[in-house]
Amino acid sequence: MDGRHARGVHTRRVTLARAVDIATVDGLEGLTLGRLAAELQLSKSGIFAHFGSKEELQLATISFAEEVFTEHVLRPAFQAPRGRPRLLALFDRWMDFSRARVFAGGCFFTAVMAEFDAREGRVYDVVVRWSRVWNELLGRLISECVEEGHLPEGVDVDQLVFELSALGRAANHDSLLTREDSHYDRATTAVRTRLGASG
After folding, report:
1. Is residue 6 part of a domain?
2. 88 touches 197 (CB < 8 A)
3. Residue 10 covered by a domain
4. Residue 197: which region, alpha, beta or left (left: phi > 0; alpha: psi -120 to 50)?
């Protein structure tokens, strides 16, 4: 039973890794159990046993993307000192993550937010939740910059959250469109200028 369980866990992770790549290129709506089965040379019934429906597959794909993003971006960024170094580390890690094409179509969440921004349902609700959590995280790190004296008292936190998110999404979009990495460099330069940082 242990061997069967391990194989099941492996199959699920391999399936979700492929699902994330598909979603960043063709959208979450581009995911089907049949397509994954064919591409991974697995039985459709086997994949169905893991997810049960297209919607459950979409939700599991989002969770998997969160896990990968946490490992590549969030955990390393939080090793940086509190305040501006940590906020810059988070932004830099985000840009490096997209630049490296850890997911085939760049930033997973930029892609799915654009795909589901005018929809309703469980997947939309999860995407909105992630967007709010991300903005709250940026807001907390900006507030820490103020507490550490790295940003002035009275800084408009919500405005700065908007600007950082917009710059990151624009860099991801423009780089994918033009196949050029210079957009990431421009975004990081803009963020450093906005935060009054050098280097």
Report:
1. no
2. yes
3. no
4. beta
* Domain CATH number, residue 177: 1.10.357.10
What is the tens place of the pLDDT at every residue in 77-107?
Answer: 999 999 999 999 999 999 999 999 999 899 9
Q: How far apart are CA 134 and CA 195, in angstroms?
A: 19
What's the predicted TM-score (pTM) here? Answer: 0.90
Range of the domain at 121: 54-195
Can you list the pairs that 7-16 forms with residues at least 24 positions away whose Cβ atoms lie under 8 Å?
8/50, 11/42, 11/46, 11/47, 11/50, 12/50, 13/64, 14/40, 15/40, 15/42, 15/47, 15/50, 16/60, 16/61, 16/64
In a domain, 24, yes or no: no
**What is the number of domains present in the chain?**
1
Residue 182 domain flag: yes
Tell me: the pLDDT tens digits for 141-159? Answer: 999 999 999 999 999 999 9
